[in-house]
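Write out this protein's structure.
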Amino acid sequence: MDFIALAENLGMEVEEIVALLKLFHEESVADLEAMQRAFEKRAKKGVVEAAKSIKGSAINLGLLGIHKIAKEIERNARRNSLKGIEPSVELLKGKLDQLAESLQNNSLLIV
């Protein structure tokens, strides 16, 4: 999916979607950091809240890959299991890094 297609899908101008994606990225990085702190403290509620925030914003912007990963993290944390979520957290971080690179280069989104 590219910026133009994403903007058209959401009924927005490209500049508007880029601005929203930049804001999403900033907020999601902060949520990811909060998630990692909560995980280190074994605070399941904090992990759930951070994952839910990322998940909701991602689906609203059509970022299905990020949404899917955040949903999985949230689901596992809600089931009282933080065991084994580290790979998903790293994958989420990678997707956010990809988004940042795409925004910087105005290239295709693969998130």
